[in-house]
Amino acid sequence: MMRRWRAIPTLAWRDSRTARRRLLLFMSSIALGVAALVAIDSYSANVTRSIREQSRDILGADLSLSSRQPFDPATDTLLDSLSRQGIAVARVTTFASMALLPRTKRTRLVQVHAAAPGVPYYGAIETAPAGRWSALQSAHNALVDPALLLALDAHVGDTITLGRARFAIIGTLQNIPGDLGVAAALGPRVYIPYKYVDETGLLQFGSRATYEAQLKLPPTISASELVATLRPALRAEHLRAQTVADTERNLTEAVTQLDRFLGIVGLVALLLGGIGVASAIHAYVTEKIDTVAMLRCLGATGGQVLGIYLLEAAALGFVGAAVGAALGVATQFALPHVLGDFVAVTVHTRLELVPILTGLATGVWVAVLFALLPLLAIRRVSPLQALRHEHAGGAARRWLRDGARLAAAAALVASVVLIAIQRAGRVRQGVWMSAAIAAVVIVLWASAAAVSALARRVLREHWPYPVRQGVANLFRPANQTRAVILALGFGAFLVSTLYLVQTSLLRNLSFGDVASAANLAFFDIQDDQIGPLDSLVRRAGAPVLQRVPIVPMRIAEIDGQRVSSLARERRTWALRREYRSSYRDSLINSETLVAGTWPPRQRASGPDAVYAISIEQDVASELGVGLGDSLTWDVQGVPVKTRVAALRDVNWVRFEPNFFVIFPPAALEHAPQTFVLLTRVADVTRRAQLEHDAVQLAPNVSSIDLSLIQQAIGSIFDKVSVAIRFMALFSLATGALVLFSAVAASRRQRLREAVLLKTLGATRAQIGRIMLAEYVVLGLLGSAAGMVLSVGGAWALMHFVFKVAFVPSVTPLVAIALAMMLLTTAIGVFGGRRVFAETPMAALREAA
Amino acid sequence: MLVARQLTKSYRSGDRELQVLRDVSFTIPDGAFVAIVGPSGSGKTTLLGLLAGLDTPTSGAVLLDGRDLTTMTEDARARLRGEKVGFVFQSFQLIPTLTAAENVQVPLELRGEPHPAARAGELLARVGLGDRAHHYPAQLSGGEQQRVAIARAFANAPSVLFADEPTGNLDSVTGAGVIELLESLNREAGTTVVLVTHDAALANRAGRVIRLNDGAVVHDSELAA
User: Fold this and answer.
1) pTM
2) What is the phi/psi pair of residue B95, to 5°?
3) Which of A292, A297, A844 should we substitute to test contact with B (largest number of B Cβ atoms within 10 Å)?
4) Cα–Cα dist A509/A493, whole Å
5) What's the pLDDT tens digit per position in A711-764?
6) Which residues of A touch B80 (CB under 8 A)?
7) Is-cis flag, bond preceding A193, omega within 30?
8) Kindly report the CA angle at A670 between A665 and A672, in degrees rounded to 5?
9) Pairing of strands A106-115, A159-162
10) How far apart (Å, rounded) are the C-alpha atoms in residues A59 and A82?
11) How many CB pairs under 8 A join A and B?
12) A298–B97: do the CB atoms touch at under 8 Å?
């Protein structure tokens, strides 16, 4: 038996002889998908390794304990007792504040890091001039982000004011371990010595600050064991513990997310390549039917014939995947430049074997599976076809009764789903993703079938000959309509979906075009400061658009059960967090009532009153509460009893103060609170003046120019979209390759027809026009199908994922569609140039 | 020995049944040279396909050396073809991507025979193409291509050789050369040759002529003699 299989490799090698170059083109469609996967996975492996190497430097300590509230005496006692065990403790307090440069009178919201001596225990903060970190503690010194110097028009040596204290800028921050490039865009950092925090007077009631203690452990103490022993105390003090291992896990998690997201784009490129392989192999097999029939006459079994062609497909798939893997390895060196701002570590790029092997295996597997479907048809090629050419057909109709083909199709679907699950990391997401891909393929396939059918119907005798012939090419046997529309549609779909989502998100963020919308926000305003600040704003001729009170609180009980016991049963961020709630008796623009009524009908009051509250629906489901459930809140030591009376949907993308929980005014009016004030000052100079005056009036009050946030978010978006587009490029290029191979696949048939037409008197120009007509129609319909799908896809993403309104932009869509059409026509005419350039005689010889 | 026993073959064409062969029976002994003749549409090629096991009859049986082809699976018939049957076609049917020698080697390789190249060289020399073994079909004339096809047909030393209009695409001189080659191989190797043709002159060179008309045997020179 084995004897009969021995010759398969030789026969396969010989059979592929004249078609190798062409088949390699088909297989190159696999290459780009593999390249994308290998690049992303190699990069991700490099980043993960770098995180492992650098996580201690990033945390700066062996263990970090942090809280959103100032450390109380119990925490101080705990830290003192740790010091006595030989553990070094250094404190860092981080908060937002206004920085004022008296010389230029400019202000800017900054992130203040007040660091005690010893910080960081691991890793080095690089400064310019070099070595300034060690000088920080010696006086009222500050080290700042270079961006702040630009914003304040300052230079090293200047003095900045933070609250009531002044600091000399002694240098700029060049590199901080674990630093995200995008973070500085939202708030430049200012490092000052910890001992001067109180002098600034900035930390008051309700200030949003992080209080952290960095711990350096002696080698005898393990961080995780220490955390385990301290657990009850940490719980009681609302302290969050983070070890080096936690840091590594968190950072790795973030990278994995990025890897998965980009991997999806790579996967789409790979599948698109698979479709290209299937259509190319189909064309190849159609050409080889005579050979197969002859081999069957000569005694080859169905299995042997299948073996020959499957081996060819696998070998070429391997070559394609290998080229892809090499390309991927080269690409991973480019990725740090594209993604650097999102990764907290310095990436040391190295050759990673596992991603390369995985990419190779996935590529070959996808190539073989996609090739198998058309290849299985050759088992059905009757040897009779060597006698009679007309004996074709029939095979396709038996499709559904063909167990092997059904099995191959099932294996294909299962493989795609499994690869998707593996890439997505979660079963549900993987299945959803496969379903989405399947939906797009089915819609495109159906549109292609519709185009063929439509072309057949609309064809009219009185049309000019080239147009008639070109349109007829869309439905005649062995047409390339499906392959082209699929490749082109998918490419167009990806590109324009990305574009639509991006512009739609940005438009939702842009509040500048609404005249009444705020562009300046003041926050952390104390109870006794709101009055004077309100007057200051009005005196400056600006409207007070919103004055929003904020009351910090925690949940004490849900339906009579203590949060501490609930937290043991359910692990959710929503139970133990600090809630910053507000009170009012109305809904605002960014909110929609989902259930219940708001404002509540009954007005409660008095010390034992149960107040009706409104909860945002996502946090309600996280807490497991619904209408009618009762919650008791700990409002700075005072219990406040409430009942859920309404659920809201909140559009968080709108830049307005939004809250998880809204109380009726009676419940919180007298609680300790801070305020946010929104105003609008159109003129940039007057806006800066108002910010400056406000800092003079109330130094602890922060203000932010919302247009700066808009710009910052815009720049983050730009960076994200560069990364996504970079990956989408792989899909687009694959689409172009698939297109190219679809054109090449039908070249022989076209050559034969062109020869006949020329023999019958057609000029080259006429043949050129026929091709042009066909590809213009294909390009137009393919990109149109992609556009329609992308509008649907973008709407679904905006609606279900980002939960904001979808704002379609028509002009860019038309532009993308036109570009795709031009690309198709160019590839079609270029790929088929020999068809109309060749003389009839030469072409006849080739066709023979 | 090749036996056709009450062969009928019908196709469905639309809603009516098209009978291509009706009740065809005959026996061809080993080493015979038989011509099947008849006007076009008389069922010659269909009969050839059934005799060679390329297709199955609607009813009846084909026995090749005592084995009933009609009860065998497609792959079993393929293996039997590999061992016992050779083909020569009107349109040569050489595999265009293979050289002459490689085309001749194919049946040997499919069966896993040792030294296929040496055997192919001998066969090509026998048909007078020893010096053209490494040419591709496109580089050979029609007569040369048909001689390669004959060499291929004899590669597995078949007990039966089927030839479907082997001279149909050749000029008369070249055609005569091809027929002489078939005759001499028939004599030397004792191979049964079944020739399908509508060329009366060619048919007359065969030892026995079976004439078909409208799907039925209307004349068999053996029975008539």
Assistant:
1) 0.70
2) -85, 115
3) A297
4) 24
5) 777 777 777 777 767 766 777 787 777 777 777 766 666 776 776 666 666 677
6) 299
7) no
8) 115
9) unpaired
10) 19
11) 96
12) no
